[in-house]
Write a sequence for this structure.
DNA sequence: GTCTATAGACTGATAGAC
DNA sequence: GTCTATCAGTCTATAGAC
């Protein structure tokens, strides 16, 4: 097995296992068994378990952010520099939701890994997460451009809640399915995105109306 | 130290540490050090680490559910058997939000422990969590009674999203504070409850209007 | 680069004196 | 009930042969 294959095999096996079972429950022995490589290979290629997790997180974090910003840029170009609020919010929650709930299995591991990483605060990730704040500020800024008459506070809360709805749906969709006796359909990702975006937009416009 | 004091000291130390650092990072040695009791005391009083966690979770779970149902009952009595949708949603998210973000520190540990327990799926907790679904169904039923003309699916999604907003605010309020440069005030708990309830109600009534 | 073997440091749990 | 001492198991990380 070539060097690059070993590295890649470790990365994808680790991501799959971490996504499914969390960081605490997955040992390096589990990873090397799943990747069919030697135990020492992890430390050779990554230095330590934490550095392996950090590499996964950085890679995926950059990829997700890039995808979001691409959608945001497309929305702003289409709208002549100022995009509709719907398109901005869809660019924010769409990539992650499609990755986790959609049919693509490999992406699903990636997205579920990121959700887990954002929950189980492991030391190497905590540092990187601070950059996420800057990324979200770009979306908040775009939202302010789209709705110049709205309070910045309301926009921040709305952005926060939109992410909350998306993440909880990914993390605990099973509970929703049980509670609704299967009425709520988690397979129709676009409908979920529309629902979250709709509620968020309504929260902003409704609040503005209430003040007028 | 009397037997009951030791038991209680272990419980409260464990809850505090788990709330702050998660299950994986807190060892039994950490707990007994914080509680100032002997290492063997945990196994003597609880049998195992998992049973200690389970006891904490069951106790708090029952307490939170009781508090929610009390508020729900009060709302239904006040409304003459059919409570306003606002009051039902406030009964759902209020107890947890007040516990976590309010000034009361002991309650804060309890609520943050529950949030963590609902995230980091440890074996003994997973079984108990299924009962939570039945608990939520009672709120969904109350919401259907309050809004008999609404789709059950929309009500289920709204309940799911209301919990999502509350949990994310508790779990990652720090990010919101950073992102908004301190504009979003996490200390005014009632305002947060009102905001979440307001958005949820609007999501339901707005959707009904859109269909009409 | 890949492997075996093992070091060194934890963990949860328990036996037995008091 | 409380304690000390310790077990057996697990983990990550590494040294050194190939």
């Amino acid at each position: 097995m070539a060097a690059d294959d070993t590295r890649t095999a470790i990365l994808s096996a680790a991501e799959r296992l971490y996504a499914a079972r969390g960081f605490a429950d997955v040992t390096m022995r589990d990873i090397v068994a799943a990747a069919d490589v030697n135990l020492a290979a992890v430390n050779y290629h990554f230095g330590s378990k934490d550095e392996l997790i950090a590499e996964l997180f950085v890679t995926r974090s950059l990829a997700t952010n890039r995808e979001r910003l691409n959608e945001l840029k497309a929305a702003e170009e289409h709208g002549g520099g100022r995009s509709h609020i719907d398109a901005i919010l869809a660019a924010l929650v769409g990539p992650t939701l499609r990755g986790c709930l959609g049919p693509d299995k490999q992406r699903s591991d990636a997205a579920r890994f990121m959700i887990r990483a954002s929950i189980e605060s492991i030391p190497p990730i905590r540092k990187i997460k601070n950059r996420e704040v800057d990324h979200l500020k770009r979306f908040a800024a775009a939202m302010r451009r789209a709705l110049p008459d709205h309070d910045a506070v309301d926009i921040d809360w709305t952005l926060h809640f939109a992410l909350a709805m998306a993440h909880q749906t990914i993390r605990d969709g099973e509970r929703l399915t049980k509670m609704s006796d299967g009425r709520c359909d988690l397979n129709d990702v676009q409908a979920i995105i529309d629902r979250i975006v709709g509620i968020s937009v309504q929260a902003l416009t409704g609040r503005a109306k209430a003040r007028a």
Notes: The CA atoms of residues 66 and 206 of chain B lie 31 Å apart. Chain B has a mean pLDDT of 92. Chain B has ten helices and no strands.
